[in-house]
Amino acid sequence: MLSRRDAIKLGSAAGAALIFPTKQLASALSDDPSELPPFSVPLSLPPVLKPTRRTGDTDFYDMRIAESEHEILPGIRTRALTFNGGFPGPTLRAHRGRAVVIRQVNDMASPATVHLHGANVPASSDGHPMDPIAPGQSRVYRYPNDQPAATLWYHDHTHHLEGEQVYRGLSGAYLLSDPVDALLPFPSGEFDVPLLLRDAKLNGDGQLVFVNDDFMNRPTILVNGRPQPYFEVKRRLYRLRLINVSNLEVFKFQLSNGARFLQIASDGGFLRVPAVRQEIDLWPAERAEVLVDFRSVPAGTAIALQNVVALSENKRDILQFRIGGGASSSKPELAIPGWTGVRPPSAQAGIPGWPTRNPPRERVARRRRFVLRFDPATGEFLINDQGFDPNRVDARIDHGATEIWEIVNGDAAFGITHTMHLHLVQFRVLDRNGKPEPGHDAYPKDTVRLNPGDVVRIEATLDTHTGRYPFHCHFLDHATHSMMGQFEVVPRG
Prior knowledge:
Pfam families: Cu-oxidase, Cu-oxidase_2, Cu-oxidase_3. The chain is mainly beta. The protein has 5 helices and 32 strands. The strands form 6 sheets. The protein has a 7-stranded mixed β-sheet with strand order 12-11-10-14-19-16-17, with no helix packed on it. A 6-stranded mixed β-sheet has the order 23-22-25-30-27-28, with no helix packed on it.
């Protein structure tokens, strides 16, 4: 019987045979292990960006988009596209109720947009693919931060360029907090760690190589821009914010010592009920906040974060935790009896002050169906047999309306996977192939996974901003080749 990883390999190869010329397919199917052994370099943490000025309710920032050099492999300078010279870009820590205003200056030779993924923002600041910043120009983006705490991320979204420009480095973490955070016994400061994960291919000179859809020939896994690094941790509880910023790479994380994760949040913030999990699925653009408990692990132990569905063994090991000594804590830490035991308890009962996150249940105004598929005749990725047309609106939605969208992966024959991301809104996944989605994958979500042949229903209420927003596959190489549409929220009546 085929393992899941083997099935993915075969399905991916079938899709590749339709997309790539023979020579490129041979390259895509070959494993090209990194020459650098795993766990040879330390993890880097992107710096937290400081406001240039502050008012009573707003933080102001200046950022620069430019090509610069960055050390990915030891001793080698790699050209990358960067925000403020970082690979990935700097982390922004925002607060609910305090707006963020960012002036983005584009010093690249190509246009750029900046999309704050997962954010509820006006259309003018959404970073629409057809609303770029021209080279040498600037744009001001305004983020109201009027939504629950969540792990968001920002990235380029320029149409036809988003795949390559994100691949070459244009992404970063945006961590939104609210008063609930302070009430919960979660790690903070150095123990609250964003991990931006992706794949890459580096040539013999250490330069990034981009070939569209070359999913099986990106053999290097990067965490915060470093290849399969190690992370020296203390015997403490850690909050890890896992962010898949890759174009195509699929992760299913587990810990090499068999310990469990406590997942506390998904794309759009805290789960309705935290979930004790052995494995965490994370496809492109998805996020998961997990707690990992090193308090009882002996000093000197090494534990690996692994991807159990890696397409090659050299990509299986992601990050090594090297456990050192303990550290004092300024507040009581979370204790859930049996968390790491065989029978997980109800995690919610062990977390005082846990927020109630019930998805909206409103009268459904309309149901729509969208089929995602690859067209081998044109090499395009289509939605309802149409490529992206900036002059076409695929769904007009009354402000305040609730809709159910049925999303179909029509590529069962080719074995091609997809995701679906809606800008502006966090939605609820109702079911997958007629079966309810597990709570940790149901809400709040802005990106949903689609295995070949899957039929997924989501429910979304569009009750904040009006305007035109994209929806698209977040396998960005697919979006680059037309797998994108638009919905427009219009004033009711």
